[in-house]
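Workshop exercise sheet. Pairs work together: one partner reads the sequence aloud, the other fills in the structure field after running the prediction. Swap roles for the next sheet.
Pair: D.N. / O.F.
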Amino acid sequence: MLPAVLADDTSMTHRADPPTVVLRLAAEARIDTTPHAQPVLDDFIDMSLFGPSDRGHLREMAATVTPPPLLDLSDRQCQTRKALAYLAQQFGFLDATEDRL
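Structure field:
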């Protein structure tokens, strides 16, 4: 977004590094302030469409994506689906595929 503030035509701007997006899912604290155990992602996100995880209950998942710059909406959605499927696979959801999203 910052290049769009600096120049009307962002295709002519130069980048120091390729754009990166960090996709991070985390269960950091309970919504209610009760003294129960720390929450897990299952408490907030239904991952059942990816099947079971071989890693048990997860508290955090993260991946960094380096997409090409200036993607249109459909390409951004495609890259997001790929990133979510990759993220799920890396954290033990072996049935995760792009077509399940």
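Discussion prompt: The chain has two helices and two strands. What would you look at next?
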